[in-house]
Design goal:
The structure holds two protein chains of two kinds. Chain A is an alpha+beta fold. In chain A, 40% of the residues lie in helices and 25% in strands. In chain A, the strands form seven sheets. In chain A, strands 21, 22, 23, 24, 25, 26 and 30 form a seven-stranded mixed β-sheet that branches. Chain A has a six-stranded mixed β-sheet with strand order 10-14-15-13-12-11. The radius of gyration of chain A is 36 Å and the shape is globular. The relative contact order of chain A is 0.04. Chain B is globular. Chain B has a single domain, classed as OB fold (Dihydrolipoamide Acetyltransferase, E2P) (Beta Barrel), CATH 2.40.50. Classes of the chains: A alpha+beta, B alpha+beta.
Chain lengths: 822, 151
């Protein structure tokens, strides 16, 4: 194609994209001169450019639109809804024609629905008969009443009088950023070449760095090399950004899309875009364009209710569709939320059961979250009537597939009556990924970090490594997880010792399936520049690419998804839904309740239901206050009741505490040892004689007492009290400031100056100062701890040696307690 | 083809010619990282500067019986459809000029050789077998390749 023509198409398209948002903004407020100017400039440029080429239809369309807009600018005409719609229709037609020109079609024979003349007439019609001509211009769905006259004629005249200044101001402001940021057009292929060149440079630098390290320190080389490194990383950043595009380019078209859809469906929708400055790989933007459009269609079609329904439901007439993009590390998350009716769990479940996706029995134990996410399963569509907006045969399953193809994922959450939220996660780029290097049998391989859920190290015994036939299983968080030996997968002999104490990389596939990959060691992780592999190597299905380590050694990137598929670890659709469900519903289902197993200070093995356990705390013995009738402990500034302590004094410096909560009250249960979270599979035998025991059951063949939460909270539960940090005054002087103050502060006291001490505070004073103060009759804090300098206490004197930490803390706790009681 | 530059190498004891246009460079072959489960004729990958090269053992790529061939410490780097390969050969002899067109000989070159050879070519350094790079890099026939991959 002619270069000039290609430039014309590219420029026009760029302006079309940029003006998409402007058009809708103009429609919302047709009086907005700045928007009007932008759109005018667009049609004007198109008209001007058409002169160079032989595009009479394009010229006549843009000319007509320009005339109408010029009338508005000159104040001869008031912009109204009909005009806006007619101009939008013309701009759409221009976009279609541009597509046709690019495709090399003959424009003369190009004939979409409706002739150009009808569009042009739409402009004129509204001009003369403002009430009735709307429908001719293709404005179905736009309420006539919603386009009132916007200016009184006098006002219009006034504005037209000011026009020269207004215009020059607005053009001046608008062209400023354009001047500051000059742009040129480049073929993407050239960018790709530069990009890969820079990637190569980075790798060459790594190689050089490695060689320099081997050669030892060479100050004359190291300096320039450092500089090279800095420059290279700058260049790399810049190049990476070159491939990046602001997601704005994608967002720009959305207001228009939303406007058209909502008009078509008779709904009122306001779109709120956020995070347009987030940058994304160009290719990636293209990949998510369709999924995003689809989700928006869905939200408007199914999510947001008709205005009347919204009003009836006590909501604002206008629905809100918020689209926000955020970058976090190497992923971009895009959230599309609406404040519509939300997803109907029952209908989705019923549909899923009806289509055979799940059985009624499975449905009964599924969590709401799981049910909602069924909408991404192939062959699922809840719309009972297929509308021409979102019922096109492509469902959300295609959306998910497309996202998963590029390593992304999608989730949905929804509040009935309040709205739906789709959350998309997509990787930043395809060519640089975060990876983990693992070793087996002397070979190294890389694994994309995105798959890695967790790394587990331990003996084969601890992991309950078992072989079922040819399949290996490990126990991970109480679940049996299939385990692949990387050595066996690759046919590499692995060494004996490593096999007994494998390192497991827990990999979570996009489908939600979890499996373990046993390797011999993990080396490091970092950003890997992934290069494609020769087709003959790819055919083995084990590798996704190759990359070079810092030392220049090439390593292969494992194709985790494919390896899992080869070993039949990817469940089909049906079990995919149900697979991860088991562990989630286990807590909800009564017969598979989970409990936290522990040994208490009496040496009894006990268990408490897992739902009660908030977390496991570790508190220093000094934080425990046992002076009252009920032991207490301060955790995170909260005073909480503590039970389960042995009668005798604690010998351990630290105590493990289970933090239990019934929702309102919290209490801590001191335990000697926390064992594990277990499933209560055996029968529960009630123990009527022990009120604190709900039942006795067998775990692993041994009896375990299950703590009765009801009794526990009835006896000991109390809402947490925020501990007002007790105040403590300390003597003046260097020693107090540097040695005493930190100790007192870490014990949970606020330090105040000696003079400020009131009766509620605790005072720490030196014995000699105390005597002086007493003698002089000075006021002292209500509770006083006296410090002495000598380790040996003089007889009959209640003092604490200033380096006796335990005694000091005990004295503080005691003083604090008497204060509370008082 | 007369006048074209050719790289002459010994493969499995035979004199072979590659078009110099296909050959990017001749490198000292360093450490080769083997690729588990890859076909036997792929020796592994090696790094050339910042590039990863797939190392092809030409003798095995021909599908010849396993004999311990003498291997040159240098390898021929070629590029084919966007991927770079390092070819392991018995020895690299010379760069020379073609003195005629590649032609067939009566009786052919034998099954393995016929698959990868486009014909015999006269060069200034004597006759050589002109190799078709794409055919060589495709490896031994696919049926056999599957067996090897599965093994």
């Amino acid at each position: 194609m002619d270069d000039l023509l290609a430039d014309f198409i590219a420029e026009t398209r760029e302006m079309l994209e940029a003006s998409g948002g402007e058009l809708v903004a103009w429609e919302a407020n047709p009086a907005d001169r700045a928007r009007l100017d932008t759109i005018f400039r667009f049609v004007h440029t198109v008209k001007g450019n058409c002169g160079f080429f032989d595009f009479p239809r394009l010229a006549s369309l843009s000319h007509a639109a320009e005339d109408a807009l010029a009338d508005c600018r000159a104040g001869r005409r008031e912009p109204d809804q009909q005009l806006v719609t007619a101009v939008l229709a013309i701009i759409d037609r221009i976009a279609l024609m541009i597509d046709a020109i690019e495709a090399g079609e003959d424009l003369a024979s190009f004939d979409p629905d409706g002739s150009d003349e009808a569009l042009i007439a739409g402009l004129d019609g509204s001009h003369e008969t403002s009430g009735t001509a709307g429908s001719e211009g293709g404005t179905d769905g736009i309420k006539e009443g919603s386009g009132p006259t916007l200016h009184a004629p006098a006002e219009a005249l006034l504005i037209s009088g000011e026009e020269p200044t207004a215009q020059s101001q607005s053009t001046g402001r608008r062209s400023d950023p354009a001047a500051a940021q000059r742009t040129i057009r480049l073929p993407v292929e050239l960018l790709d070449r530069v990009m890969s060149g820079v990637s190569d440079m980075v790798l060459a630098r790594n190689d050089l760095a490695h060689r320099l390290r081997q050669a030892g320190n060479q100050p004359t080389i190291d300096g320039p090399f450092e500089r090279l490194t800095t420059i290279l990383s700058d260049v790399r950043d810049a190049i990476t950004r070159m491939r990046m595009q602001r997601i704005e380019t994608l967002f720009g078209a959305l207001p228009r899309l939303v406007r058209d859809l909502s008009a078509e469906l008779g709904k009122q929708v306001m779109v709120d875009l956020d995070g347009g400055d987030v940058e994304l790989d160009r290719e990636m933007i293209e990949t998510i364009r369709d999924p995003l459009t689809h989700l928006i269609r869905n939200a408007i079609d199914h999510g947001i209710e008709a205005p009347s329904a919204r009003l009836a439901g006590g909501k604002r007439e206008i629905g809100l569709l918020a689209i926000a993009a955020r970058q976090s590390g190497n992923t971009i998350s895009i959230v599309i939320s609406d404040d519509g009716r939300g997803l109907d769990e029952e209908r989705i479940a019923a549909k899923a059961v009806h289509t055979g996706l799940i059985t009624a029995a499975e449905r009964a134990v599924m969590s709401r979250d799981k049910i909602l996410n069924l909408i991404f399963e192939p062959g699922f569509s809840t719309a009972e009537t297929v509308s021409n907006v979102s019922g096109r045969g492509v469902g959300l399953d295609v959306v998910r597939q497309n996202l998963e193809k590029v390593g992304g994922s999608i989730k949905v959450t929804s509040q009935p009556g309040h709205g739906t939220l789709f959350s998309l996660q997509i990787p930043l780029t395809l060519s640089i990924i975060a990876g983990l290097t693992v070793e087996v049998g002397g070979h190294r391989f890389a694994i994309p970090q995105s798959y890695v859920e967790e790394i587990v190290q331990g003996t084969a015994h601890a992991l309950e490594f078992t072989r079922m036939g040819e399949t290996a299983l490990v126990t991970f968080r109480g679940n049996r997880v299939p385990c692949l030996m990387l050595g066996e997968v690759l046919g590499v002999a692995s060494c004996e010792i490593a096999a007994r104490e494998p390192t497991l990389v827990m990999l979570r596939l996009a489908s939600g399936d979890l499996f373990a990959l046993a390797v011999e060691g993990i080396h490091n992780h970092g950003d890997l520049v992934v290069k494609p592999l020769a087709p003959a190597v790819m055919r083995s299905g084990l590798y996704a690419g190759s990359t070079l380590l810092d030392d220049g050694q090439p390593v292969l990137l494992l194709d985790v998804a494919n390896i899992a598929a080869q070993h039949n670890l990817v469940s089909d659709t049906r079990t995919r839904v149900l697979g991860p469900l088991d562990d989630e519903t286990a807590t909800a289902a009564a017969d598979a309740a989970r409990a936290m197993l522990f040994t208490d200070f009496a040496g009894r093995r006990s268990a408490v239901r897992l739902e009660l356990v908030q977390r496991i705390e570790t508190a220093p013995a000094s934080a425990i206050d046992r002076s009252g009738p009920r032991a207490r402990v301060v955790i995170d500034g909260l005073i909480l009741p503590l039970i389960g302590l042995p009668d005798e004094a604690l010998t351990l410096p630290r105590v493990r505490l289970l933090r239990l909560s019934d929702g309102a009250c919290e209490l801590l249960y001191a335990v000697r040892e926390v064992e594990d979270a277990v499933e209560l599979t055996e029968a529960l035998r009630p123990v009527p004689e022990d009120p604190l025991a709900e039942a006795v059951t067998l775990i692993g063949g041994k009896p375990v007492t299950l703590i009765d939460a009801h009794t526990l909270f009835a006896l000991h539960g109390e809402p947490p009290v925020v501990a007002a940090r007790p105040r403590c005054s300390i003597p003046q002087g260097e020693w107090s400031r540097t040695i005493l103050a930190p100790l007192v502060a870490s014990a949970g006291y606020d330090i105040i100056a000696e003079g400020e001490a009131d009766s509620a505070a605790i005072g720490i004073v030196f014995e000699d100062m105390f005597e002086v103060a007493e003698a002089l009759g000075r006021t002292l804090p209500g509770r006083v701890i006296r410090l002495r300098d000598q380790p040996e206490a003089p007889a009959g004197c209640e003092t604490v040696y200033r380096y006796d930490r335990e005694a000091l803390l005990a004295a503080l706790a005691a003083a604090n307690h008497t204060g509370e009681a008082a | 083809m007369t006048g074209d530059l050719l790289v002459i190498a010994q493969i499995a004891g035979r004199r072979c010619a590659l078009s110099a246009l296909d050959v990017k460079s001749v490198i000292e072959i360093g450490t080769v990282t083997p690729i588990p489960r890859a076909p036997a004729w792929i020796s592994g990958i090696t790094a050339l500067r910042s590039q990863a090269l797939t190392v092809i053992d030409c003798r095995r790529a021909l599908g010849l019986a396993e004999i311990e061939w003498l291997t040159d410490h240098r390898a021929i780097v070629v590029a084919e459809s966007g991927h770079s390969y390092a070819l392991l050969v018995d020895g690299i002899e010379d760069i020379t000029t073609a003195a005629g067109e590649a032609g067939q000989v009566p009786g052919g070159f034998g099954a393995e050789w016929s698959r990868v050879a486009s014909g015999m070519i006269e060069t200034l350094a004597g006759p050589a077998l002109m190799l078709d790079l794409a055919a060589l890099l495709a490896g031994p026939d696919s049926a056999r390749h599957d067996i090897e991959a599965a093994a």
